[in-house]
């Protein structure tokens, strides 16, 4: 089984260059013939039909969601059914669901991997409505979270080491392939109910506000996990955060809670005041201003790059001290350029990161609970999601849209 983040055709994350007319996948480091769109569409449609049939055969509770049907990404009401709950399943009534930039990449098929109809949403906070007979950790009424994935093989090396997020059989919460259930495409949190094995359900600590917690389930763990792994959680160290969006603004909050010096590196001068006065950043550097970038050269121990679009990374690597570490978490749909001169002389590291394990996510939530960390959110109703997606694409959100699913889905359908 190939890891879906590595496989080309099924990659939920690799920005497969699904460009009309493009004949080959550029810059993936392997010589892979890339079928033209004309060749690929009929096959995609056939397997979509199969998946839909599998979904019909699920036979579980009726669910109401909002789905994108094609690459316009326009979302509209969609009826489907969840799987019949198994012994270890938790049935969750969805309360809030954040909108991650990944949802936008996927519904518009920018990564070439959309399995329509796509019900987005993987930043879910809800309340347990029912549990299977074998569930030991949750009971009806518990407040819980679901993040980017809802399954893994639980027998491979990665799963054994507690890195389910890197399992080749990881099942994504939305637009994933649920092989254990007829290969049906998974449907995410833009829906009233979701059924998830208890192994992938998170406990939301008391005291956290639910709408502000939802984005932590993806954005939060995606920055927290590499900060822990690369020692970017030590007081006094200097962290650079590139891109002040959903992921970036939470990284600033974690960095400050760890006692670090935090500098935001942004293309938006209009975000300076809020970054410093409200989010607690120590400094703000406009990445398109060469003077400001020069002044910050060689000052940072680590950088978390959250940018969703193509951008030059060599100027960012220049901001690291020798032996500094950059972690890429943003997933632009075109390959970034990494000139060796940018890392070899300073012995610098460049790493990637995909969300975090279940354990990382629970630890992140506990940390957020202790430090009162939540995302800055604009809570919206379901019938605003299409406008929200347009605004997200234009970088017009401070800093995360969260859909009040329980409070608006019924009336919006
Ligand atoms: P977001 O809220 O849209 O934030 C992205 C930020 O990137 C923007 O706020 C903007 O910040 C900056 N930016 C946008 N266009 C840019 C450009 N052309 N050049 C330079 N900077 C630009 O998105 P998000 O939800 O935080 O997600 C960010 C990326 O992470 C997406 O690609 C998403 O798919 C990916 N992601 C990855 C993981 C993972 O596990 N690795 C998890 C979640 C999301 P400024 O205005 O400050 O410049
Ligand atoms: Zn996400």
Report on the structure:
It is built from twelve helices and 19 strands. With 413 residues, the protein is an alpha/beta fold. The chain folds into two domains: 58-217 and 376-410, Quinone Oxidoreductase, Chain A, domain 1 (Alpha-Beta Complex); 219-352, Rossmann fold. Strands 3, 4, 5, 10, 11, 18 and 19 form a seven-stranded mixed sheet that branches. A six-stranded parallel sheet has the order 14-13-12-15-16-17. A hairpin with a 6-residue loop joins strand 1 (59-68) and strand 2. Helix 5 (219-229) packs across helix 6 and helix 5 crosses helix 10 (358-371). Bound molecules: NADP nicotinamide-adenine-dinucleotide phosphate and zinc ion (ZN). NADP nicotinamide-adenine-dinucleotide phosphate binds at residues 100-102, 105, 218-219, 222, 243-248, 266-268, 271, 306-309, 311, 329-331, 353-355, 392, 395. One of its GO terms (biological process) is lignin biosynthetic process. Residues 73-403 form the Enoyl reductase (ER) domain. Its EC number is 1.1.1.195.
